[in-house]
């Protein structure tokens, strides 16, 4: 569901922030820049040095964000001589234990190394998933199960599936289940699930921990569902793909390192293995005041939770955390100009790590472009002044920062759209393919129990599920002291005919939330406006 952060100019006031864009002697430009290639290499060396001859698996490396006051003071000084500390946070597995290590890059040392013993495990590495997915192909019971179904092993593909936990007793700590699909000459594997075989892999031992061939269900035929390039339309010359956006004078935004300037906006954009896009220090220039006023300190996707609503043995624990388990940034794809970003886009690379700690480049994972779809931002035609026709129109041009993360069957398009009005529109669009379940039914008339989804083709259920995207949003609307305010419609009724011949009207009741729990809001049909304001700053009115 798209979230809107409505930032009213009325409430925006005084805040000066000057983003230094000159390159620094520190190898990076800005304290919120993600770790550079050489810094990631340095992290690997430092951690490896303190665990000589011990196997360390790297699951996440990212910037250990400096304290906010340090960053704010850094940007408020034009030519800072001292930078906030440059630190990395490293999540590793060492001897089957999860370590949270803070590395200080300036002193080349480890500041802290804590064993995490709470619930949950680190993000999976791509490498361990790949190794696990090969295990069944040399495992005799699995080979027999495939033969028993009359399928050919070389047409079977396997995917790692993380498992939700409902308090069951478990032998293995870090574990995944494997799910299988049957290609049989097609590429749309999700349409042909092989149902009924449960394989649990213990990741620390990298061994099959349990195997169960539970039931036999026909593999859906999935005829005509492959996603091939559409044939040219015979009926007409209609060309719907690849419309061009021309900017003969080039884009009007600038990208200096990771600092973006466009129209009245300036902000910092970066990549993180887990979160994907991170937007920082967004502020907008106020012409009347002649200064930048802050809007957002830091914003990113903190989790994407996808629970399936199926109670059966192979499905009940499909409750994916697409960011925390698979990495929203790690799952980012290389964006193609003219297809998923217009040709006037500029691209940014990211750096992630392999499980041995070696950094690898993720080319063109973020694109930035000016967006104009022929829409109107503001307009008015004034005819009331005798002898004059006044017409003013402002086209709706915005700046979009985009990433696409492909997590298994789903492709998430995540956008941050900066508007001239001072608002940032956050959008998540989902495309890709549904996760299907194979069943015995070929017609909905045969179904006499809850099948937890919709029969979309013969032997194929699209299973009910949600995608919950949670955003970490640290708004600094006109400074740090922000309040959350709800404005709701309230109907007033009266019977006093002397007051008005009318019987009712609606008015707006504003309420400032005192606690976080009070601020919990169920978005729905009830009309409500949600505001983040700096209550300490007053305008003239
Ligand atoms: Cu879905």
TrEMBL record:
Residue ranges of every copy of the Copper amine oxidase N2-terminal domain listed in the record: 30-115
Q: Which Pfam families match?
A: Cu_amine_oxid, Cu_amine_oxidN2, Cu_amine_oxidN3
The protein's GO terms of the molecular function aspect are: copper ion binding; primary methylamine oxidase activity; quinone binding
Task: Supply one GO BP term.
Answer: response to jasmonic acid
Keywords, alphabetical: Copper, Disulfide bond, Metal-binding, Oxidoreductase, Signal, TPQ
* Keyword Amino-acid biosynthesis listed: no
Q: How is it modified after translation?
A: Topaquinone (TPQ) is generated by copper-dependent autoxidation of a specific tyrosyl residue.
* Active site positions, chain numbering: 322, 410
* Enzyme Commission number: 1.4.3.-
Q: Which SUPFAM superfamilies match?
A: Amine oxidase catalytic domain, Amine oxidase N-terminal region
Keyword DNA damage attached: no
Query: Ranges for the Copper amine oxidase catalytic domain?
Result: 244-540
CC cofactor: Cu cation
What does the record note about the cofactor? Answer: Contains 1 topaquinone per subunit.
Q: Which InterPro entries match?
A: Cu_Am_ox_TPQ-bd, Cu_amine_oxidase, Cu_amine_oxidase_C, Cu_amine_oxidase_C_sf, Cu_amine_oxidase_N-reg, Cu_amine_oxidase_N2, Cu_amine_oxidase_N3
Q: Which residues carry this modification: 2',4',5'-topaquinone?
A: 410
Q: Which PANTHER family match?
A: AMINE OXIDASE, COPPER AMINE OXIDASE
Family per similarity comment: Belongs to the copper/topaquinone oxidase family.
How does it associate, per the subunit comment? Homodimer.
Its recorded name reads: Amine oxidase
């Amino acid at each position: 569901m798209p979230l809107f952060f409505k930032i009213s100019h009325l409430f925006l006031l005084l805040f000066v922030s000057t983003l230094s864009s000159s390159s620094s002697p520190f190898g990076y430009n800005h304290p919120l820049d993600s770790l550079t290639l050489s810094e990631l290499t340095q992290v690997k060396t430092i951690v490896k040095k303190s665990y000589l001859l011990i196997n360390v698996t790297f699951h996440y490396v990212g910037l250990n964000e400096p304290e906010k006051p340090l960053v704010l003071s850094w940007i408020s000084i034009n030519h800072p001589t001292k930078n906030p500390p440059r630190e990395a946070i490293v999540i590793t597995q060492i001897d089957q234990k999860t370590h949270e290590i803070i590395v200080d890059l300036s002193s080349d040392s480890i500041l802290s190394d804590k064993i995490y013993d709470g619930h949950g495990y680190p993000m999976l590495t791509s490498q361990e998933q790949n190794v696990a997915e090969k295990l069944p192909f040399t495992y005799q019971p699995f080979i027999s199960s495939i033969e028993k179904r009359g399928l050919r092993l070389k047409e079977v593909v396997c995917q790692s599936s993380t498992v939700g936990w409902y308090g069951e007793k478990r032998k293995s700590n870090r574990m995944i289940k494997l799910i299988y699909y049957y290609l049989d000459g097609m590429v749309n594997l999700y349409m042909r699930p092989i149902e009924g075989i449960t394989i649990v892999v213990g990741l620390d031992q990298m061994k099959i921990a349990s195997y169960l061939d539970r039931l036999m269900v026909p593999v859906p035929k999935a005829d005509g569902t492959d996603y091939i390039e559409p044939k040219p339309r015979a009926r007409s010359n209609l060309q719907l793909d690849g419309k061009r956006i021309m900017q003969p004078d080039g884009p009007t935004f600038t990208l200096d390192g990771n600092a973006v300037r466009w129209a009245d906006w300036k902000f910092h954009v970066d990549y993180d293995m887990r979160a994907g896009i991170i937007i920082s220090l967004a502020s907008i220039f106020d012409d009347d005041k002649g200064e930048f006023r802050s809007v957002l300190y830091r914003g990113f996707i903190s989790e994407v939770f996808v629970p399936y609503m199926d109670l059966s043995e192979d499905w009940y624990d499909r409750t994916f955390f697409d960011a925390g388990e698979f990495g929203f940034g790690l799952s980012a794809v290389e964006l193609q100009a003219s297809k998923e970003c217009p040709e006037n886009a500029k691209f940014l690379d990211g750096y992630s790590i392999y499980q041995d700690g070696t950094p690898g480049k993720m080319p063109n994972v973020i694109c930035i472009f000016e967006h104009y779809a022929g829409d109107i931002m503001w307009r008015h035609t004034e005819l009331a002044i005798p002898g004059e026709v006044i017409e003013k129109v402002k086209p709706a041009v915005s700046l979009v920062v985009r990433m696409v993360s492909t997590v298994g069957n789903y492709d998430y398009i995540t956008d941050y759209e900066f508007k001239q009005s001072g608002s940032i529109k956050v959008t998540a669009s989902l495309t890709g393919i549904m996760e299907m379940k194979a069943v015995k039914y070929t017609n909905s008339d045969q179904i006499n129990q809850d099948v937890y989804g919709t029969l979309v083709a013969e032997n194929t259920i699209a299973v009910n599920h949600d995608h919950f995207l949670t955003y970490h949003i640290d708004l600094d609307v006109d400074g740090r002291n922000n309040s959350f305010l709800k404005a709701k419609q309230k109907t007033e009724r009266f019977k006093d005919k002397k007051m008005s011949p009318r019987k009712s009207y609606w008015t707006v009741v504003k309420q400032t939330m005192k606690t976080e729990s009070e601020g919990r809001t169920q978005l729905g049909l009830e009309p409500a406006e949600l505001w983040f304001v700096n209550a300490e700053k007053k305008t003239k009115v």
